[in-house]
Amino acid sequence: MRNVVVKDAGAAVEGIQDGNAVMMGGFGGAGLPLGVVRAVLDTGVRNLTLISNNAGSTEDDLSLWFEAKIVRKIVCSYPRAAKQFAEQYRAGTVELELVPQGTLVERIRAGGAGLGGFLSPVGVGTVFADGKQKIVVGDREFILELPLRADYSFVKGHLADTLGNVTYNKTARNHCAVMATAGRTVAVEVDRVVEPGELDPEAIVTPCIFVDRVFARSPR
Amino acid sequence: MRNVVVKDAGAAVEGIQDGNAVMMGGFGGAGLPLGVVRAVLDTGVRNLTLISNNAGSTEDDLSLWFEAKIVRKIVCSYPRAAKQFAEQYRAGTVELELVPQGTLVERIRAGGAGLGGFLSPVGVGTVFADGKQKIVVGDREFILELPLRADYSFVKGHLADTLGNVTYNKTARNHCAVMATAGRTVAVEVDRVVEPGELDPEAIVTPCIFVDRVFARSPR
Amino acid sequence: MIPLSRDALARMVALHLPSEGFVNLGIGAPTHVADFLPTESGVILHSENGILNVGPKPAVGQEDWDLINAGKMPISLRTGGSYFDSSLSFAMMRGGHLDVAVLGAFQVSKDGDLANWSTGDNGSPPGIGGAIDLAVGAKSIWVMMDHTTKEGQPRIVERCVYPLTARNVVTRIFTNLTIIDIVEDGLAVRALLEGLSIEALQEVTDSPIHALGAPRIIRQDGSVV
Amino acid sequence: MIPLSRDALARMVALHLPSEGFVNLGIGAPTHVADFLPTESGVILHSENGILNVGPKPAVGQEDWDLINAGKMPISLRTGGSYFDSSLSFAMMRGGHLDVAVLGAFQVSKDGDLANWSTGDNGSPPGIGGAIDLAVGAKSIWVMMDHTTKEGQPRIVERCVYPLTARNVVTRIFTNLTIIDIVEDGLAVRALLEGLSIEALQEVTDSPIHALGAPRIIRQDGSVV
């Protein structure tokens, strides 16, 4: 029977390469797979394109990636309050693609759902429309937003069964559920791995078809 | 405290008018709000635009609407095996807009999510592309599909609390969850109404913000 | 005449929210409105990171960092609340399902243009977050802000000079001096701080205002009579 | 030489499905493939109405009409299965998450064009359902069908005359006579029914075929040696 459990964060990030696009779940610390943050650092990869709602705070989080200068570009909605990122940004050593939060998650969803893009009312008449195709439907103008996919999606779940079905905890679900549909390799850091049948089939948020690797977070 | 419980199907369809667009949940009989089917008939409304995956079988279902000739147009993915509909269709008294199933649900989602449309790879190079705008992204051609909304969305849930939070039963979830986001008035027929707090906050599929009316199905 | 305190302004907004309405309180000052909602209001609060029916912040030591609001502060879930992913959360916002979004602002124009995400300072990284989705999608967009900048410059202007969040979206502005509705024929003053005249308000407002009937009186505690 | 029975054809397809793969079996004959899946295959079946890990049909009298497949027939859920709404279900399909979709067909062209939803008969209402989404989205599109129509006309053709479902998507065809891969240089015969020659197969195939190495032999029970 299918079993996607791997032993640790190191195994979860196996294969990651320089220049990869990487989605990291989370809104603030909720939903951020912290073990993965460190494991990616340990691989020594560089020049990543990071797709994430935030750019870290000054804590033990994505700030480590900016401190280590392994991110070439970040696609992000709210990189404020991120000290290490801000330094890189001011120094011009990291590229920022600023995307409204709802547009960010919808672009990721489009990537995972095989759509070529979508027409958004968000950003019309603002700098967020710059350089994007405008499409008028009826008497209303929209912006064509394009899908996002990644080489790796790393998210934080609550429970996963060995098949790879995942639930989340409270507001830690945020971008994780959508990112889990849009990575070529999807790895989920969870609080606990359970047996198939232990999760309520009505309450599984990410069905196992989307998940390639699961590992249990180490106690801190 | 908010309470959206109404006494029966008749109250759930109150206000429906000639010429309205109506979404009906369900794939086959699963998810079809049967009490609503009859209650709409009882109102005597006509010239409805029906948005539904199917057009009824020969049973006690949407076929009744075609028998009563209250549907002017149906937007549908699979109206086969629908005897009463087929008669109307051959007689030319009902208009059919045939939409691939995934495109149908995605158009409804776009309606509920405030998008102006989406770029679909489905139907490219087929009759399903006829009359639709083509948009090329990179080297790939897509069809611009437009959102669907309705005056009323009627779906079948399993449990609802008095606030209007809804869960579904097994594969009866199908189009219901998405249709519940895209009606100006959304009414849900459920097996049972429960108190707030009885539904697991992690397992609520349709949060109450989308729901205007809830009623418990009468025992048959 | 002392401008409203932050608490009083928050109370004034809270008292205006529609009973049993679905409301998103933007990060910053708007979040503070929650503290002044009468329990009988039945208002249901949404936070864009994926929660409906946000409850008060937990007691010190009881924080759950998987249960936070859009300002990344610990909250609680009220009975009957639910969790969902960001795509459904933003579908609620962009799809017009929220009754009211209360947002902070740097500037609002007489046409309801909103500038609340950037002052154009290129020194620090910009951040847009979800404010722009709210501004486009909620049925009513209310702004709450100080009437002027710290330097005394008007924030209600003919035309925003800061980068826009959205055009023609704001319908009502609550400031520490007034409540103004943006209507067809301009800026209509619905309520005025006790002791303040329309003429005095006009002096700190960079676009013509007019009274909507006899403006109601805002008391120092934020109640309106 | 007797063409494969429906059961044998279904068994032949079942034996080729990738171990532990995610598979959608289209309505009609493909659904029947499930009955021949070895339990150790670990194949996980998807049905587009919103279920992953479809199990066998329940015993008579145990049917739950809220638990059906895309053919609207009662099924069961295997341990570790899940339910979800149609938008997520079609995201799985269109987004390339399924390893294989097995579909019936009226015609398949040498370029992998698929015609499986309409014979152009205008007398009865058309129906497209979810077959088109599968045809566009799954990583591999396999067709299973009788090699010819009841009247003996080839179904594998130079160019489909029936309305297309999708262009250039089919990669493998299982018929009651053969297994053919659609590759760069045309129709490559991977396996042939015992006793059938390439030349005889060519006679009932409306597009040039060629052998891929030495084609394997299909036995009457659908096993391939």
TrEMBL record, chains A, B:
Keywords: Transferase. Coiled coil: none annotated. The keyword Nucleotide-binding does not apply. Signal peptide: none annotated. It holds the Pfam family CoA_trans. InterPro entries: 3-oxoacid_CoA-transf_A (IPR012792), CoA_trans_fam_I (IPR004165), CoA_transf_BS (IPR004163), NagB/RpiA_transferase-like (IPR037171). GO terms for molecular function: CoA-transferase activity. Belongs to the 3-oxoacid CoA-transferase subunit A family. This is 3-oxoadipate CoA-transferase. It comes from Tardiphaga robiniae.
TrEMBL record, chains C, D:
It comes from the Bacteria. Gene3D superfamilies: Glutaconate Coenzyme A-transferase. GO terms for molecular function: CoA-transferase activity. Keywords: Transferase. SMART domains: CoA_trans. Pfam families: CoA_trans (PF01144). SUPFAM superfamilies: NagB/RpiA/CoA transferase-like. Belongs to the 3-oxoacid CoA-transferase subunit B family. PANTHER family: KETOACID-COENZYME A TRANSFERASE, SUCCINYL-COA:3-KETOACID COENZYME A TRANSFERASE SUBUNIT B-RELATED. This is 3-oxoadipate CoA-transferase.
